[in-house]
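Good morning C.,

I know you're traveling, so I'll keep this short. The sequence:
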Amino acid sequence: MQVAVMGFGTVGSGVVELILKNKKSIEERCGQKSLDVKHILDIRDFSSHQLANLFTKDFNDILNDKDVEIVVETMGGLNPAFDFVSKCLEAGKSVVTSNKELVAAKGYELLELAKKNNVNFLFEASVGGGIPIIRPINQCLAANEFLEVAGILNGTTNFILTKMIDDGMDFDEALKIAQANGYAERDPSADILGHDAARKICILASLCFGKHVYPDEVQTEGITNIASEDVEYAKVWGGVIKLIGRAKKLSSGKISATVGPCLIKNGCQLASVSDVFNAILVRGDAVGDTVFYGRGAGKFPTASAVVADVIDYQLYKTGIKNESAVYAVYTFCRKLGQTAADYGGLVLLGKIGYEAETMANAGFVPGISEGILTVCTLIPAITYTLVFILYKFFYPLTKEKLEPVYEYVRKNNESLGA
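The tokens, ready to paste straight into the viewer:
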């Protein structure tokens, strides 16, 4: 499988490094003989990089390459990311992204475009970085009606607040340390003003409640107005201050979504989440409260989620192909068997065919390799066909003479539920 990566910043470089570092195990997990990065799109000069032969500044090199079936987008922002991703989907290429701004603002449109072109648009890394959250919501917790989703969704602001709480720093001092450690950008406004968390809560709200929520609909406040006195007041009260993104379904059916500083009582699951770690609480009517915790940002945690989506795409694609192939072989064999039985009257080995049918109907097909199942289904087909040829051309027997044998086999088949 050939992969292209658009954007070679922190996350993009992490994706490439992770694929190269864990290449063998990744290929085994997604059932591929080879998984290779073929193109890396970036406008900067990487002529001295050890992977210089993979770099391109022309998006069309990716778009027009028929060998590339999945594209990883880690550029960030809306432009040109939206245009590039749209064109990839329209060209029949699946896309994996870590771009929360893109998913929050254009996610619904891109999902519809992917559906129209029978490809995938995957974005696990766009919400919790290395924290698995989208798959659990869509799969593990699918039986629940979701009541609320809330959490610490931004590692930068959580690091700053941790420094203010534990070390008594003021906001400006804590921000400088965050920038020095690479936890905050040179322009940290998206983080400290709450916009990053707002984009993430939009994605979570849409997944949990089935209604698209846009960032400009979220009441958003950052942490720039938090002073040392506020932190001390929270301690006296018996809690801490955390920047919380929260979405809740109201009795009217509308969705309430907010981002802002909140007082969290000590003992609450979110109160102890510190430094750059994130935590997401999902409340379901059946399961109650579940919390997903981990590093919400960073080079390799986010890259881990991106590569997991690449693996998931390949497993899904292979599963569909294998299921279709197995079903086609099985149907073909069953028809051959039925034809031979109808014309020949000899079904002594019909039990084998019906065993295969029973196995498939019972749902055991996905647990058996396609090779073994193909052999199992071809045996009765070949047998039936040979029996038919032998009967038709070599055995001058009448159906009446074989009726006792036919009746015996038919009764055995009925006992199998055929």
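Safe travels,
E.
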